[in-house]
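Why show two proteins at once? Because comparison is the fastest way to build intuition. When a single record is shown, students tend to memorize it. When two are placed side by side, the eye starts asking what differs. So, the first record is below.
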Amino acid sequence: MKRLMAGLAALGTTVVALAGAAPAVAAGNSLAFGSRYFDCDPEYGCHGSAVLPKSWKYTGLGNGEGRFTDTSVPRMIRIDTDLDSHPGTATAALNKQKALKGTPGLKIIGLQNGTMKSTMQQGPLRISTLVYTYRSGSQTRWVATRYIGFHGDKTASAEVTVGGRVQDRTLLGTVLTKATESLAMAG
């Protein structure tokens, strides 16, 4: 139970009424944030944007999907706005949990459903967030995957995942919160 509350508390204000704060972000681990663009093509421009760490390197992964990676520390955020199917946010999170079955060292920290405000007139946002850890070689990785329904819709229109070292979970929670609140997609 302590692990559940600490993991969800690391997601910041999006998880309300949970006790047990994660450790403070270590000195020198702060980031500058700014508007970043993804899903860009030369003819039509960029189809998505969010407030993300300015220093993280962008890699396009295909239609509607991009990843921003910290080149100095193993952590990242991936945004997918072109989901193959559009289940409800809660169903998408449960499906993700089922798909993780058999992952080495998997520990589900928690699953939380709720709402958030959008800073980009996309809200209210319906969200479902799955938090878990797993083993990658000798390291334990901390991951939070969030499914987002825009304008109060329960249908998952976007998936945002942050991942990295367990000790970076507070910072990753901040990255996830800023990205969620500011996520905007071209009409």
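Second record. Ask yourself what differs from the first in the token line.
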Amino acid sequence: MNYYAGIQGNQYRIKPGKLDPGSSEGILPVSLDEETSYEVSAYTNFTWKPFEPLTLSGGLRFTNFTFVGPYTAATFNESTGEITNVTEFDQGEKVKSYNALEPRLGLNLKLGQNTSLKASYARLNQYLQNIYNATTPLPTSRWKTSNANIAPQTSDSYSIGLYRNILNNAVELGIETYYRNSENNLTYKPGADFFLEEFVERDLVQAKGKAYGVEFSLTKPKGKINGWVNYTWARSFLKTESERLADRVNNNEWYPSDFDRPHVFNSTINLEGSKYNTLSFNFTAQTGRPYTTANGYFDLEGIDVPIFLERNNVRLKTYHRLDLSWKVNYSKKLNRRWAGDWTFTIYNVYARKNQYNIFYTQRSGDANANIFRGSPLGSYELTIMNSPIFSLTYNFVFD
């Protein structure tokens, strides 16, 4: 049996953001408090072979997370969401602390010379979460520390996979399926005011999550032509369980999360023409991410206001892109003091205009009425890159 143990400590510092209006007199400056926290963990892991075809591995990790001041903490009324009390914490003073255990277990069973079966289980606790929003023209996100109002995200993950080497071990095939359930996922409440909000937890709700999928892989690690191909079918959903109607997302029904991509395909092909030249092609394609579109609209004093009844109810177009790199490693000097290579890269070779987001604006008049089918709101695509990006890099290492 082999085993190891250790301890680890981390400090996290989050700067949620600030707004400097400059010379504008109509906008007030905003500067959110910096958040400081510490995570200390102790862990151990073992590997054991009870008999030749079977290998077992397991581990246990204990974590302590402490959120400290300076910080201004608020207490909220559960029914109305209004602030009922505010507490000031000094520098280094403990605001909130969490302790947790994280077990993990793995199994590797050889089924003959070229086939193996692998299975695993792991529990994780996440004390820092990224809160995503995809209803604005530019998707915004914000990191948030666990505190008295926000519990850590916890998840249990299960996986099992079958792997086989073929063609005299020249090619590796694999198929793996997984399932993960989670608690306390952060998401915005309907109609939340999330932009530089001081007490952002007032606009958050913690939801249940589930994710599952199947991954197929093919790898050729050696030879003048080598690389890998990977396809994944995967789903990811969230579900709130709020009793208060105003806090429910999708009326407490399951809905696709921001990470829901049913189809993902990635591949990398390397062509090693000689010891001096290597061409690499990287292709990626995936289902467009979900975003929220209005289910209707109503007129409010001459302004058409959208109505959002469902979250992440439509998707962007399929994302795909091809990248190319050419690496040249050559030197005429026999007694050189360093070894170097040039790498020429083309990002987005065929100039794909991938959608970054879709946003809506109020229309005026009858312009483009045939395009928008009479809707008072016009929808527009936002793209970040619409052309290839070229780069040239020289890397060297001293002998």
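One difference worth noting in the second protein: The mean pLDDT is 89.
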